[in-house]
Specification:
With 375 residues, the protein is of the alpha/beta class. Helices cover 35% and strands 19% of the residues. Helix 2 runs antiparallel to helix 8, helix 6 (157-166) packs parallel to helix 7 and helix 9 runs parallel beside helix 11. Bound molecules: pyridoxal-5'-phosphate.
């Protein structure tokens, strides 16, 4: 049986990982500033995380949501505290797409409407509604096409206001910083406009925090920069440090009904143990502040370099847009300098490292990119 060949692969087989480093099967060490796509939040094979999962494995690894799972409440309490949304409610699921799918359902159940506003260059996942609100026709199958989605220009409050006037909007879904779209920040004013219009029209503000959340920007949710609350935050990637887990944090005004949402695997014991370990590490090692300060250091240093069109982002979510002539830099960072980075089309290098990245490791990257850019 062959694998269904949907991923273009780097010719690297990773067999070992620790902190911000991975090793291949030939013993070559790599600095990981990609984090397997923003997933590694507290470092590869973090000892506290390994122990938490290992201990849980010896107790009970899985039982369905038909019994009490006290770890879920522990997780909800800790997440509520660290994210500053104590009075929100947690629904646990398994992936970012599933989180967005559920958030959109909660919105539509709440106000009984169908029209969703999403933005140009957005990415929200690959399940049917998540992909329908994703601005990439190439990954929308005919069966996913949905006449209820309205794509608007990002950061354009006037167009948004007009769309609210013309449509019965159930929800607005927005990334605080567009990731796949090339590290583009929503302006605080735009996020406040979304909040104001959702209040005015009883629509639901969904903050997709799957990539930009969980402390990556130095605030728990990148949307927090606007000083207003979203109605629902969706999260995944960094939540389990590689253990598949996702969730949505839901404002108190939404009333749960039995069977309204559901999942077999979501919130299982192992996923909760992994997620607790992540939050405990974030808290005890002050990782939000580390993400903010190491991120700011990287941004400052990158902005001094030549041959860059633009450096964008916040905290440890950074995009470096390069001219066409430097299109091989990402490839060279991996093959020559042994550094993993992410990318966004056409020519943006994306940095999505672990939140405990050190200045020393940031310097290794800066030295490598300086060489590549001829600085
Ligand atoms: C902003 C955003 N939302 C949703 C998703 C989908 O997450 P998943 O791949 O876990 O379904 C992603 C994945 O890259 C993402 O970046």
């Amino acid at each position: 049986m062959n694998l269904f060949d949907v991923y273009p692969l780097n010719d690297v087989t990773i067999v070992k990982a620790s902190g911000s480093y991975v090793w291949d099967d030939k013993g070559q060490k790599y600095l990981d500033l990609y984090g397997g796509h923003a997933v590694i939040s507290i470092g590869h094979t973090n000892p506290h995380w390994v122990k938490r999962i290992e201990d849980q494995l010896h107790q009970v690894s899985f039982y369905s949501n038909s019994v009490k799972i006290p770890l879920q409440q522990e997780l909800a309490d800790k997440l509520g505290k660290i994210s500053g949304k104590d009075n929100y409610q947690l629904f646990l699921c398994n992936s970012g797409a599933e989180a967005n799918e559920n958030a959109l359902k909660v919105a539509s159940f709440y106000n009984g409407r169908k029209k969703v506003i999403a933005f140009k260059k957005s990415f929200h996942g690959r399940t049917s509604l998540a992909v329908a609100v994703t601005d990439n026709p190439a990954i929308v199958a005919p069966v996913n096409e949905n006449e209820n989605i309205i794509f608007l220009p990002f950061n354009d409050a006037a167009t948004l206001e007009q769309a609210f006037l013309e449509n019965e909007v159930t929800a607005v879904i927005v990334e605080g910083i567009q990731g796949v779209g090339g590290i583009r920040e929503a302006t605080p004013d735009f996020l406040r406009s979304i909040r104001r219009l959702c209040d005015q029209y009883n629509a639901v503000y969904i903050a997709d925090s799957v990539q930009c959340g969980y402390g990556r920007t130095g605030q728990f949710y990148s949307h927090d920069i606007a000083g207003v609350n979203a109605d629902i935050y969706t999260m995944a990637k960094g939540m389990g440090n590689g253990f598949p887990v996702a969730g949505i944090s839901i404002a108190p005004k939404f009333i749960a009904k039995h069977f309204m949402l559901g999942t077999t695997f979501g919130g299982n014991h192992l996923a909760c143990a992994a997620s607790m370990a992540v939050l405990e590490e974030i808290e005890s090692n002050d990782l939000l502040n580390n993400a903010a300060s190491v991120g700011q250091y990287l941004l400052n240093e990158l902005k001094k370099l030549p041959n860059i069109i633009e450096v964008r982002g916040r905290g440890l979510m950074i995009g470096i847009e390069l001219p066409e002539a430097f299109k091989d830099v990402k490839k060279n960072l991996l093959s020559i300098h042994k550094i993993f980075t992410g990318e966004a089309k056409p020519n943006v290098i994306r940095l999505l490292p672990a939140l405990n990245l050190s200045i020393a490791d940031a310097d290794i990257f800066l030295q490598a990119i300086k060489t590549e850019l001829g600085a």
